[in-house]
Amino acid sequence: MSSRLIVPELTKRRVRELASQRRRIDKRGLTEFRPVTIERSVIPQADGSALVHIGHTKAIAGVKIDLGQPYPDMPNAGVLAVNVELMPLASPTFEPGPPDERAVEVARIVDRTIREGKMLDLEELVIMPGREVYLIFVDAYLVDHDGNMIDACVLASIAALLDATMREAIVSEGKAKLIDEREPLPIRHYPLTATICRISDTLIVDPTLEEEETAEARITIGFDEEDRICMMQHSIGTLRYGELYQAINISREAVSRLREDLRKVFPDAR
Amino acid sequence: MSEIVRRDGRKIDELRPITMKIGILDKADGSAYIEQGNTKVLVAVYGPREVHPRHLGLPETAIVRCRYHMAPFSTRERKSPMPTRREVELSKIIKEALANAIMLNLYPRTTIDIFVEVLQADGGTRCAGITAASLALADAGIPMVDLVTACAVGKWNGKIIVDLTGEEDEECEADMPVALMPNLEKVTLIQLNGRLTSDEFLEAFNLAVKACKLIGELQKATLRNYYEKIKEEVYEQ
Amino acid sequence: MAAAEERKIVLPGDLIAEGEGYEVGVNVYRDDGRIYSYVVGLASIVDGKVSVTALKGVYVPKRGDVVIGVVREVSITRWLVDINSPYQGILPAIDVFGKRFSADKVNLQDYLKVGDAIIARVASFDRTTDAILTIGGKGLGKIGRGRLEYITPTKIPRLIGKRGSMINLLKKESGCNITIGKNGVILIEGPNGESEELVAELIRKVDREAHVPGLTDRVAEILRSAMKRE
Asked: Domain for residue A1, yes or no?
């Protein structure tokens, strides 16, 4: 890929022309994801990890698990903390430094997908109520940005959590400590997202960078394995009411196909 | 639909009392204040004005910048004045919800700055902020294709309800802030936190559209009354 | 349409006119055969042209406009001038000293300092550059005396009035010379401080009550009673 900073207007015009004929620049179907690959356990140092490709877009996520104090207002729940970094090596438009508003938004989307999709039973992560709980840190790194960073970061984070195991905890003399035995995380649900863009009044799934830069509107919708909507984030442009309903139907289908990709790597996933 | 089920005695489709004012700050180009139940939000708009630093300006369009911020005294426990990740995200999505209505191409190389200050938080602060910011933009004379109106809906105790209080927001199974341009029937913001079936989503969305229509009427009345009041004062003298 | 005939207040997104045969004027847009307002303002339809006079808004420079500005920065070759607009004014040194101007011989500070006010004409502007100003011309240049007052730029037509009725009334009754900058800055030069203050007060009244009918009469009444007292 080239390292140009902006998508030329000519390319955008072509993307629009094609979309108005219900076609795409990479010849994909409108509701198709690019080829998705998921590699698990890529970072043995981490408690769980995954590298995800969606076309040329790559994201890697690592899970680190520790013991610590719960939030004071939630003494009976483990702590989930999600961070997303848009690495300067992923795009000429990313700068080193603290997460900007784009990174913060993606981190909050990943966090809400996991949390509101009830992926983890946080109450199962309590060792001593109010005192010792598991702290689950999910760090997602976008390492190559060719569009649709949201779904890539969500998928990498979900896969890393499915990959993760945590060391068992024992309590002795009122103190908790971790031993070398490992157990899986208390996974309850399997939320995933699909991002939809509108270009020339046509809705498409999983935009490439060129498509994203051309898009008139963008919305990301998450579903759990029972097809309940568990997350929504509208992040570019405006949507007519009918388009919103259509986007929900398209993304539900796209997520169920993405789920098959996930199951190839995690056969237990629902 | 109409039985009373909520802690504050409201019906499931009933809004909290809302008051809005515009033109309340002297120095800002536009300003507005909203109270929605116990939620109180103050908004100031500056611009279109020169961009500093100047390289941030765009050759063909104005940019919009937005800061959503909660005052340290706005919550039960003091909130650190440092911006949280939530505030960073909300600043971005509020900016986008409003920028979509503004005729940005009329003022290239300029900025429109929106400051949303939550003085008291009791649920629905981002939506109240958007509603008030749209008024402040209109008050500043900034050209827009439509007003932007926002309201949250959610699922609480198994029921789809409108305009959640802070308490309902904490207890709810799902909350969904929605912002619309009511005349144009376009969504400029939608988020969902929590789980809804597709049918529940439709019910919630329709309720949000209905609520936004009502709030939109209040916005219009607020703008008209501001100028009508001057007229009345003149005639009384 | 009723809204336009009564010069009713319209709001962003309000429908003003519907159907063929209307022309799109200022502050309105057409969508699907209907014409809507962009701004809070007073709607009018003149010869089939639909427009809205905004009740607030910023000044965007236009070539040929007379503006009143305040010097905010002096460099070695030009002055930067605040012209009450998102776009700044630039007064090049050659406009004052001619083509043979040489930066090592002249200190621009000696001619105009930060804070000095000028009456200038917009020589060029196309939104991609700053507004280039000139002070060569009758009535232009550094302001030596008087008082500045500000009005919402969109209300300047109201301050002028039909065929100059409002501004002529103000000038005649107050004895002040009044120069209107299209950018909403007004220079008032009167025989004394009180008359300048009176005009300034009436300009603020025009700003506030521009949308209320009968404004010229109200202003006339205040002027006459004030003049009688003297």
From this structure: no
